[in-house]
Design brief:
Length: 756
C-alpha cells in the first residue's frame, strides 16, 4: 500500500483518509494565494469563508475562528496560559485547567497536530511555562471538522507558532524582568530562497505565591456533619524552563518541499507549602489537628522530532502532505512532607514519588484535490501512545496500612494506545450564496493496559479495549452581501477516558485524600450544533447560538472510604464515573472595532446555560455570563497602551460547581527606535485572581478556594535583529515589533509542533 501511495501521487490515499495538515489544508481557505503570507501553496480561494479586518489577520474560517496574538503588546512577557486567557470564551484557571465555553474536555494542539506536551496532567505545566511570544495566533474550533480528531467534546484550541519566511536574515531578542519572574528569548532565521534555517533559545523563571483554604464535612443520612476538616495554607511555586529548537525547510523543486524540526524543553518545579489542619467531631469539638510542611520537586523533559514532505500537484490547489512526528516526555515528581501534631505527639513523615514516561508517534497523510468549483480532502492518521506511570508512597498508617507494609502503596501502570483514523470531506458551492462542506471520520481505538501492584496479588491486572466510532461533521455558509454572512455547523465528538483514568489503584495524595481510576469507564459522546451571524469591515462583530447534548458524561466523583469507628480520620477518594447526561447551550457575541482613530476595543460575551443529570445529585442547572474586554489606545506613533480583563461565571462539575473567576492585565509599549521597544506590564492589577470550588452531595459538603497573591510587575526590552516590521493601523503607521521565527516553539512550534 505504501508503494502504491507514493507512485500514484495520492491515488491510494483517496481510499484511506486521515488528517488535514494545519491551516493550509483547511477546507475553509483564506484569501487568494496572491494575498496570503508567503507559505505553502493554498487550495483555490473561497471568497466567502474569510472575514478580513483592515490591518489585521483573518478572523474567521468556515470551521474555526482565528485570533491574532501578536497585537497584544504584552505577549512577550506572558505565558501561553496568559495568551489563552485573552481569547474569547477560553479560560485558564490558576491550576492550569483549560475550558472552552465552560467545557474542560478540550484538546490543545500545536501547529495543527496533537503534542505529547499537551497530554494529561502535563498540559497545565506546559501552558504555564511556554512563552506567549512564540505564539502567532490562536485558532478556536468549537465544532472541528472530520479532518481533525474526534477527541474533545468541548472542541480544539490550536496554537499557531510564529514563523518567518521573509528572504534574508531575520531575528529577535526579548528580555523581561519583574516581581520574582524573568524571561528571555533569542531567535533567528535565514531564508535563501532554496532553504530556510531557523532556531531559538528561551529561558523563563516564575515564582507563584498563593493561598488556599477549605472546609470539608462528611454527612450522615440526614445531611448533618459527622466530622469536619478545616485547612488553611500558603505556598510558593518556583518554575524554571529552558527550551530550544532548530529546523530546516528545503525546496527540492517548484512542487516539492521537505523539512525537519527538533525541539527540547526542560521544566523544573520546586513548590513549598505550609498548611494547618483542624478536625472536628459531630458536636463541633476539636478532636485533632496538625500542621504540614511539604516540598514538591518535579523536573520534566520534553523532546520531539519531525519530518515532512509537501507536494503540489498539477491542478491548482492540489496538494499532498505527509508528516511524521515523534515525541517523548519524562517526569519525576517527588513529595516530602512533615506533619506536626498540635497535641505535641511525634512528628511523622510522608514521601511520594510519581515517575512518568510518555512516548508519542503521529503519522499523517493528507490529499486535497479540486473538482471544478468543489474540493475533496482525504487522508489518514495513525497515533500511538506508549506510556507508563510508577507511584510510590511511604508514611505511618497511610490508608490504614501499617508503615511496615508500605508495599501496598507501590503501583506501576502502563498502557499502549493506538488510534487509526481515516476521513473524507467534500466542499462545494451551491448557487451564488451557499458553500457547504460535509465530512465523515472513522476512528478505531486499540488500548492495552497493565497494572502492577504487589507481586503475586490480585492487584496485578490487565485489560484490552477496542472499538470503532464514526463521527460526521457538516458546515455551511450563506452570503447575505459582501460583508455579511450566516454560518451553520454540526459535529459528533467523543470524550475518551484517559488511560490513567482506567487505573484502579488508589494513589496516595495526602492523609485526607487519595485518587483512583475506574476500569468501567466508557467514552462520552456529544452532538454539537451551532449557528451564527457575522459582519466584517472596519467594525467586526459575530453572534453565535450553540447547543450540545452529551451522553455518558465523564465527571469526577468523590466519596469517603469506610472507617472502622466514627473517631477515625476520614479519607476522601476521588475517581471518575460516567455520570448521566448533560446539555449546554448559549449565545455568544464578539465585537472588534475602532471607537476613534486612536482607540480600538475588543469585547466578548457568552451567556451560557448548562444542565447535568446524574444519579448522585439529580438535576443541576446553571445560567452564567462570561466575557472579556480589551481596549487599545495608540497615544502616539511610538506609544501604545492596552488594558484587558476577563471574567468567567459559575461552572457545573457534576458534584457541585466552580465559582466565578476573573483577572486583568495592563500594558504599555514605547518604541524607542524602529528596532528597540520598552514594554511594561502589570498582571492582575485588581487582585481578582481567586478560584473557588464547591462539592455538595448526600455524603459530602466542601468549599475550597485558592488565590494568587498580588500584582506582577514586568519590565521588558524587545529588539529586532533583522529589519523593522511595520503595520498599517487605520491612518496611522505603527511599529509592530519583532516578528522573527519565534523562540523555542517557532517553526513547527516546540515539542510536538508541526508545519502549517
Amino acid at each position: 500500500m505504501r508503494k502504491t501511495f507514493f507512485t500514484t501521487t495520492g491515488l491510494g490515499v483517496l481510499i484511506l483518509g486521515g488528517y488535514v495538515s494545519g491551516v493550509t489544508q483547511s477546507l475553509a481557505q483564506e484569501a487568494p494565494p496572491a494575498a496570503a503570507p508567503a507559505q505553502a501553496a493554498e487550495p483555490p480561494a473561497d471568497p466567502t469563508t474569510t472575514v478580513t479586518v483592515t490591518g489585521k489577520k483573518p478572523q474567521n474560517k468556515i470551521d474555526r475562528q482565528v485570533y491574532d496574538n501578536t497585537k497584544d503588546i504584552d505577549s512577550a512577557t506572558g505565558t501561553a496560559a496568559d495568551a489563552l486567557n485573552k481569547v474569547p470564551s477560553v479560560n485558564v484557571d490558576p491550576t492550569g485547567n483549560v475550558t472552552l465555553r465552560g467545557n474542560s474536555n478540550v484538546q490543545v494542539y500545536i501547529d495543527g497536530k496533537p503534542s505529547v506536551m499537551m497530554q494529561g496532567d502535563n498540559r497545565a505545566g506546559a501552558l504555564q511555562s511556554m512563552s506567549s511570544g512564540d505564539i502567532d495566533s490562536v485558532e478556536v474550533m468549537t465544532n472541528p471538522g472530520a479532518q481533525f480528531s474526534s477527541e474533545g467534546s468541548g472542541g480544539i484550541i490550536n496554537l499557531v507558532m510564529r514563523k518567518n519566511r521573509k528572504p534574508g536574515n531575520t531575528g529577535a531578542f526579548n528580555a523581561n524582568v519583574g516581581d520574582g519572574r524573568y524571561n528571555a528569548s533569542i531567535n533567528g532565521a535565514r531564508n535563501s530562497g532554496k532553504y530556510t534555517i531557523s532556531g531559538g533559545l528561551n529561558i523563563r523563571h516564575d515564582v507563584r505565591p498563593s493561598r488556599s483554604g477549605s472546609v470539608q464535612s462528611r454527612l450522615d443520612a440526614n445531611g448533618d456533619p459527622l466530622s469536619t476538616t478545616e485547612q488553611v495554607g500558603a505556598s510558593e511555586g518556583k518554575n524554571d524552563n529552558i527550551s530550544a529548537n532548530a529546523g530546516i525547510d528545503y525546496n527540492l523543486s517548484d512542487k516539492d518541499q521537505i523539512g525537519a524540526q527538533t525541539s527540547y524543553s526542560r521544566r523544573e518545579m520546586d513548590n513549598t507549602s505550609d498548611d494547618t489542619y483542624a478536625l472536628y467531631n459531630a458536636d463541633g469539638d476539636l478532636t485533632s489537628g496538625y500542621t504540614r510542611h511539604s516540598a514538591v520537586t518535579g523536573p520534566r523533559d520534553d523532546f520531539s522530532f519531525g519530518v515532512r514532505w509537501d507536494h503540489t500537484g498539477d491542478l491548482t490547489g492540489e496538494t499532498l502532505k505527509t508528516d511524521l512526528r515523534l515525541g517523548r516526555s519524562t517526569g519525576n515528581t517527588a513529595t516530602d512532607a512533615l506533619n506536626y501534631p498540635t497535641d505535641g505527639s511525634d512528628t511523622t513523615r510522608e514521601t511520594r514519588k510519581v515517575q512518568s514516561d510518555f512516548h508519542n508517534a503521529v503519522l499523517t497523510v493528507d490529499y486535497v484535490r479540486p473538482f471544478g468549483g468543489a474540493q475533496m480532502t482525504t487522508g489518514f492518521q495513525i497515533t500511538q501512545d506508549d506510556n507508563s506511570f510508577n507511584n510510590t508512597a511511604t508514611g505511618p498508617d497511610v490508608l490504614g496500612v501499617p508503615a511496615t507494609d508500605n508495599d501496598r502503596l507501590t503501583n506501576s501502570f502502563a498502557y499502549k494506545q493506538t488510534i487509526s483514523a481515516a476521513y473524507m470531506t467534500w466542499q462545494t458551492p451551491i448557487g451564488e450564496k451557499w458553500i457547504v462542506m460535509g465530512g465523515l471520520r472513522a476512528e478505531a481505538l486499540d488500548l492495552d493496559t497493565q497494572n502492577f501492584g504487589v507481586p503475586g496479588t490480585a492487584d496485578d491486572t490487565t485489560s484490552h479495549i477496542s472499538y470503532t466510532k464514526f463521527n460526521p461533521s457538516a458546515f455551511a455558509t450563506y452570503t447575505l452581501n459582501d460583508t455579511t454572512k450566516l454560518r451553520f455547523s454540526y459535529s459528533h465528538r467523543l470524550q475518551r477516558p484517559s488511560p490513567q483514568d482506567l487505573n484502579p489503584f488508589q494513589t496516595y495524595q495526602d492523609p485526607q485524600n487519595v485518587s483512583a481510576g475506574n476500569t468501567d469507564l466508557k467514552p462520552a459522546e456529544t452532538d454539537s450544533f451551532e449557528a451564527g451571524y457575522e459582519k466584517s469591515g472596519k467594525v467586526n462583530y459575530q453572534i453565535r447560538a450553540y447547543y450540545r447534548k452529551t451522553e455518558d458524561s465523564i465527571t469526577s466523583y468523590s466519596y469517603f472510604l469506610p472507617v472502622a469507628n466514627p473517631s477515625d480520620t476520614p479519607v476522601l477518594l476521588t475517581t471518575k464515573r460516567n455520570l448521566g447526561s448533560g446539555e449546554a447551550g448559549g449565545l455568544e457575541g464578539n465585537f472588534d472595532g475602532k471607537l476613534s482613530d486612536k482607540i480600538s476595543v475588543r469585547v466578548n460575551a457568552n451567556l451560557a446555560w448548562n444542565k447535568l443529570t446524574t444519579p448522585t445529585t439529580g438535576e443541576q442547572e446553571a445560567t452564567t455570563l462570561s466575557g472579556r474586554v480589551s481596549m487599545d489606545y495608540n497615544a502616539t506613533t511610538k506609544d501604545r497602551f492596552q488594558i484587558s480583563y476577563f471574567g468567567r461565571g459559575k461552572q457545573l462539575t457534576g458534584q457541585g460547581y466552580t465559582g466565578p473567576f476573573g483577572m486583568g492585565n495592563m500594558s504599555y509599549r514605547h518604541q524607542y527606535t524602529p528596532k528597540a521597544a520598552l514594554v511594561v506590564t502589570v498582571q492582575d492589577p485588581f487582585r481578582t485572581a481567586k478560584f473557588r470550588t464547591v462539592v455538595d452531595t448526600d455524603s459530602i459538603h466542601s468549599e475550597s478556594y485558592r488565590s494568587l497573591q498580588g500584582q506582577v510587575f514586568m519590565v521588558g526590552l524587545s529588539y529586532t535583529l533583522g529589519g523593522p516590521s511595520t503595520q498599517k493601523d487605520g491612518d496611522q503607521q505603527r511599529w509592530n515589533g519583532p516578528r522573527g521565527p519565534g523562540g523555542p516553539g517557532g517553526g513547527w512550534g516546540g515539542p510536538g509542533g508541526g508545519p502549517m
